[in-house]
Structure formats: structure tokens, C-alpha cells
């Protein structure tokens, strides 16, 4: 993730919060770029709290970001993922819940602090391999998922999250916002058996769809496509 590292190096924070550190994919990059910062992590899923990841942090919390109560604020808050949709990582299914998250993050910023939001986007998705990745991901995360989602999920996931975030930040008094689009050039890796690790409803229709996608992936391969980095300064 050379582009993420390059853009992180534009900042010189003393304190950083990573919201939703998960498996530690970004945590390792952050600690690599900023070896001497005070590093805080938060993730509400206890299944992701692993010793080999938590040692990267000076402090970490296993709770919902909306309930986080810390006395200090942060020079830089980093969140998002270049390959997985925001709504799925953070269990955020409505525009209302997303608004609450953004407002909370802004409230945790030091004066002149910055947000660094990495967001998966399909806006520049033109090649077959990129469109196939989106179809594959939507199938596993939505169409065939065992999880029951609220009826208005579609409204949120079909919204332009970049424009939505800009509007929310402007309403919070933050107008110094920048967005860059980055082509993900790393090799796309996916499960050889799409159904094996995903919690999908194993209906004949879903299993056939998975088999068809698997066959198509073997023909065309997959490409992650693009992601955006949105930065905002308080």
C-alpha cells in the first residue's frame, strides 16, 4: 500500500486514533510510518482483538466508537479500508448512523487535527475484472449473506459516500477537504472456494451463482479497481 504510506507521510501527528483496526492491516502501516506516536485503536468486535495486533497500540478499546469516552483528543484519525465497503466493516447500514459516526470522529479531533478516510469506490470501474470483483463482493456480502439487513441498506450503499462525507464535514464546519483516487495495483486474492469461508445461505440458487462466479473469475481474474483517500483538516 505504497500510496497510503506516501499520503500518511504528509502528516506529523503526535497522537493517532485508528477507528476499526480489525485484523491490523492498516495498524501495521500506521506504526511503520509513525513509530513514535501515541497510538490508540478502537474496534467493537472482540473477535478481532488479537495480541499480535494490540501490541502495536499504546491503548486500545473494544467498544462502539459512539460510546468512546477519552479525555484526550487526536491529531489524526484514520479509518476505512481500500478493498472492503465501509458499511460492511463498521456495521453501518443507514445514512443516519453514518452521520453520527462522522460527527463523533470530528469531535475527537484536536484543533487543526485531520481525518484520513480510505474508502472503496467503484466509480471508475470499467474493466471486466473490476466489475467482476464488485459482483463477487456484493454476492457474498449482501445477496447470499445469512445476515439480515435493514430495508433501507440500499439507500446508503448506493449513495456517493464521498459526496455524503463532504456534506457532513461542511455542516460540521470543516471545509478543508481533499479527495484523491488511487488505482489498486496489487494482485487480487480471493478464496478458491467462494462459499467456504463466507457465511452465505446455502440454497441451490446461491450455490449455483457461486459456481458461476468462480468459473468466470477463473476466466477473467479479479482486479480490486480503485479506492479513494479523503482527507479533511479541522
TrEMBL record:
<dbReference type="InterPro" id="IPR007848">
    <property type="entry name" value="Small_mtfrase_dom"/>
</dbReference>
<keyword id="KW-0949">S-adenosyl-L-methionine</keyword>
<dbReference type="InterPro" id="IPR029063">
    <property type="entry name" value="SAM-dependent_MTases_sf"/>
</dbReference>
<keyword id="KW-0489">Methyltransferase</keyword>
<keyword id="KW-0808">Transferase</keyword>
<protein>
    <recommendedName>
        <fullName>Methyltransferase small domain-containing protein</fullName>
    </recommendedName>
</protein>
<dbReference type="GO" id="GO:0032259">
    <property type="term" value="P:methylation"/>
</dbReference>
<dbReference type="Pfam" id="PF05175">
    <property type="entry name" value="MTS"/>
</dbReference>
<dbReference type="GO" id="GO:0008168">
    <property type="term" value="F:methyltransferase activity"/>
</dbReference>
<feature type="domain" description="Methyltransferase small">
    <location>
        <begin position="5"/>
        <end position="137"/>
    </location>
</feature>
